[in-house]
Write a structure and sequence with these properties.
Strand content: 25-35%
CATH topology: Purple Acid Phosphatase, chain A, domain 2
CATH architecture: 4-Layer Sandwich
Number of domains: 1
Structural class: alpha/beta
Largest sheet: 6 strands, mixed
Length: 278
């Protein structure tokens, strides 16, 4: 049920003051229980989010390293002794509670399912249980999330986010961001998000949107953004084994993007200015 779930969610934001940015922080691939997790950087980022006004988190999956999808299938298919299964599930429950204690107090839009989720015998997963604990939406494996910024009855603009934990593992940045770009082949959105490959990148693309107003046709430029959302898992550290060391691969991107969404009025028109840094 959870593995291929598509979801759609909507949040209306009532804008009280113009020119004050709202912050959207898409972040995942923490692998928190791995010895290579950069917990100092992660905790610093989480504390910044707790203190920052108008800040929203967006969970991109793989918060833990406990099991990968293939390992989970193996555990489900073998006839484990009931006590053995219980010990494993207790660890999964502890992971959820540890994570909850670290990230509560942040305004989370929700969390995507990653490929390192542990699945319990009752059909829930570490991510679905964390979402329930926080009281936030479980976003499934793929989500379309609309943010509607409303200033007055007539002044409203939407920002659509299309997000997946991630596919592809290209060694080069071009191949990585191209896989995100392919998401636009089947969905219209303003921001496209993928994690998974531990790269950090943003590629803006301007498009022209036809408009009809007061009996006249015109064109308005609007940007859409394609992002890989980084990681908090180090690639190399002395004395530790890693997939990067085994493959003589590239260092991972430590950190996550920051998306500023600023409601403004220009030329009498209400709009939301989008700025992305990584």
């Amino acid at each position: 049920m959870y593995k291929n779930l598509f979801t759609m969610f909507y949040r209306e934001i009532h804008v009280e003051k113009l020119n004050e940015p709202y912050y959207l922080i898409p972040m995942g691939d923490w692998h928190y229980d791995s010895p290579l997790c950069d917990r100092d950087r992660l905790h610093e980022t989480l504390e910044w989010m707790k203190k920052k006004p108008r800040c929203m988190g967006f969970g991109m999956g793989d918060l833990w390293d406990f099991t990968a999808y293939k390992e989970g299938r193996t555990l489900s298919s073998v006839g484990l002794h009931e006590q053995t299964r219980e010990v494993i599930e207790q660890q999964g429950h502890r992971n959820v509670e540890t994570m909850y204690s670290k990230i509560k107090g942040i305004d989370w839009l929700g969390f995507l399912l990653g490929n390192h989720d542990f699945h319990f015998a009752d059909g829930t997963s570490t991510t679905t249980r964390l979402c329930a604990r926080l009281g936030v939406p479980f976003l499934g494996v793929l989500t379309l999330f609309r943010l509607s910024f409303r200033h007055t009855e007539r002044n409203c603009q939407t920002i659509d986010i299309y997000a997946h934990h991630g596919k592809g593992a290209s060694r080069l940045m071009g191949g990585s961001i191209n896989r995100v770009y392919q998401m636009a082949e089947s969905m219209q959105a303003d921001i496209f998000l993928m994690g998974h490959d531990h790269k950090g990148a943003v590629a803006p693309e301007p498009i022209l949107v036809p408009q009809f107003r007061n009996g006249r046709m015109s064109l308005k430029q609007r940007k859409r953004y394609f992002l890989r959302t980084g990681s908090f898992l180090k690639g190399l550290e002395s004395g530790e084994g890693s997939y990067v060391a085994g493959a003589a691969g590239k260092q991972t991107h430590i950190g996550c993007p920051k998306i500023e969404l600023t409601p403004k009025k220009g030329g009498g028109n209400f709009h939301v200015d989008v700025h992305v840094s990584i």
